[in-house]
Amino acid sequence: MSTTFADLHIGASLLQILHERKMETPTPVQAEAIPVILEGKDAFIESPTGTGKTFAYLLPILSRMDLDKKDVQAIVLAPTHELVMQIAREAEGLLPSQDSAVLPLIGGVDVKRQIERLKKKPILIIATPGRLLELIDQRKLKVHEVKVVVVDEADRMMDAGFGKPVADVMKRTLRDTQRLFFSATIPTEVIQAASNLSRDAVVIRAAAPEGAAGVAHMYLVTDPRRKVDTLRRLLRLVNVRSSIVFVNQIEKVDEIVSKLNYHHLPCRLLHREASKEERARTIQQFRDGVFPVLITTDVSARGIDIPGVECVVHYDPAPDADTYVHRSGRTGRMGRAGLVFSVVTNQELFIVRKFAKQTGISITEKQMAYGALEAPKAERKPEQRGKAGSEQIKPTRQGSPGKPEGTKTGQGRPDALKNRKPGKTRT
């Protein structure tokens, strides 16, 4: 018999909200983490991207809160403005009758306005560490009533850039404050680095939900001078509604944006140098389907949940295997299907092979030929070209609302993408 949210002793008002959203069965990470959090234990909790980690900590935290007590009772730390705002929206949705109960705190905005909002006595703070410390040091925010601190994206938050601010926040709370560390990847080094911030912490490594459609990981080898054109052809070939393309340096983006727009693939750029308002507007328009391709640096690789992203492209290799996992996790969320491609040169090929070995993910080589993704010629027989051995991901003819052309089984697409009605294809 499967576990339900009701079995996990979630608060009645939260259960009603989950019921209205038709959410009855917790994901593995929720089923494992919620009882541990409700018991008040410290924990390191690892689970694949898109498996419901945010609700895994919000539901038990909000269940334990005294909603009548107007003090900050919980803090969630996150590395980016976008992730802070996303978590805050989820929390607000779980507290619809509690006006001003949730307060996001991020840098780059008017601190005076945030101080004014603090006067409304929020009970849950979602924040980047720097701005939170600033307000604590100014004595505008008291944390002596905080019962739990969550560190989201813990592997990044405990690195050289964020580690000290996170530790400083922890030191300002009481010693018996519950500490929770969540991420898609929590290596042993992270646990060791945070061991002095936790007490007898439980380690949970949850699996993806059963029956998940899965994500197909592939790579294409191309000449450096043809990389942009390879990207264009790939996006046209897979022909999905929304794709995220990751680059390492924004200096490369102008050429990509120019070529994609010229070939009627509207795209926008998201990066750290953009203003907070511009970044928020770009993400919202991408969510709304205003444009199909989002080009970004790693500012969007961490925790951002954009429903319906069907394809992720690593235009530049990720700096490490963990970043590859987090980037790739923007698709295939909550058990949906997804496509992940790496566009690499011969000199970059060793990086993909290294990531495959380190993560245990099968990343297969493909070539674009005859309107399909096929195995490299050296790995297939001539008679297999364009037949059942190839990945038939052909775009639909313009104006046709039917299934993608190719083999009758739609081979090459994860199940959730096979029967999708793609939009019109321009040539």
Automatic annotation (TrEMBL):
Residues 3-31 form the DEAD-box RNA helicase Q domain. This is DEAD/DEAH box helicase. Residues 230-374 form the Helicase C-terminal domain. Residues 34-204 form the Helicase ATP-binding domain. Residues 376-388 have a biased composition (Basic and acidic residues). A motif (Q motif) lies at residues 3-31. One of its GO terms (biological process) is response to cold. Gene3D superfamilies: P-loop containing nucleotide triphosphate hydrolases. InterPro entries: DEAD/DEAH_box_helicase_dom, DEAD/DEAH_RhlB, DEAD_box_RNA_helicases, Helicase_ATP-bd, Helicase_C-like, P-loop_NTPase, RNA-helicase_DEAD-box_CS, RNA_helicase_DEAD_Q_motif. Residues 374-427 are annotated as: Disordered. Keywords: ATP-binding, Helicase, Hydrolase, Nucleotide-binding. The lineage of its organism: Bacteria, Bacillati, Bacillota, Bacilli, Bacillales. GO terms for cellular component: cytosol; ribosome. The keyword ATP-binding applies. GO terms for molecular function: ATP binding; hydrolase activity; RNA helicase activity; RNA strand annealing activity. Belongs to the DEAD box helicase family. It comes from the Bacteria.
